[in-house]
Amino acid sequence: MAKPDIDDRFKKFGTVSFTSITKTNDFIDYLEKDQVMATKCKDCGETFFPPRADCYKCLSSNIEWVEVKGKGKLVSFSKLQYGPIGFEEDLPYSIALLNYGDYQVFGRIAKDVSEADIKIGMEMKTVANKLPNGQLNYVFTKA
Amino acid sequence: MGNVAIIGVGQSTFSRQYPGSIRELAFDAFSEAMKDAQITTKDIDGSVICSSPEYDKQRSPSSLVAEYLGLIPIPTFYVETLCSSSSTGLKLAYSLIESGLHDMIAIVGVQKMSEISSKESQERMGRGADIQWESPFGTMMPAYYAMHAQAYLDKYDAELDDLAKVRVKSATYGQLNEKAYYRKPVALEDFTTEGSKMADPVSSPLRVGDCCANADGSSCVIVASEEKAKSFCKKPIWVLGIGAGLASVNMTGRESLTSLSAAEVAAEQAYKMAGVGPKDIDVAEVHDCFTIAEVMAYENLGFAEKGGAKELIRGKETYKEGSIPVNVDGGLLSKGHPIGATGGSQIRTIVLQLRDEAGQMQVKDPQIGLVHNIGGVGVYGNVTILGREQRG
Question: Which of B32, B50, B157, B273 is the most buried (most CB within 10 A)?
Answer without folding.
Answer: B50
